[in-house]
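SEQUENCE WITH STRUCTURE:
===
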Amino acid sequence: MIETFSWIGVAVVVLIAFGLYLSWTAGRLDRLHARTDATRASLDATLLRRASVAQEVATSGVLDPAASIVLYEAAHAARQAEEEQREVAESELSQALRAVFGEPAQVEAVRAAPGGVEAADELAAAVRRVPMARRFYNDAVRAARALRRHRKVRWFRLAGHAPRPLAFEMDDEPPLALADRAA
């Protein structure tokens, strides 16, 4: 009889330990999802800042008319893009920035205009932050997806109804002339 109680006690301790382990794993997954949400908000703010600064530079009159139109339209499209088209629109803004600011002479022409120094520095800083914000977000997504792949998470449905996080893939290579200025 005492042996039966000891087996029951061991089984209860094992079940409690397993329950605590599952609870800890669910908490960890929840923290990873919160981190993913926070880094996505940071990425969105960084992309919005880059598009806003690009629009500001395009409308400031320091660029030639053709470059202004190309940059303004790409920045406007990036700001107005729906979630499904966001990666493409942001990539097109990166390409427009490289086309407009591909040559150091263009950056120097912007810097020579009144108020151009601040505009060029602000744009260089905004362009420099985008790859970092995207990397942080994609790292958070990678960690959450790795934990969601574990059997215990799938079998016990520890992810609940949280949507599966998706990586944000875009062309975020900065223009060389602005990247040199940012460094």
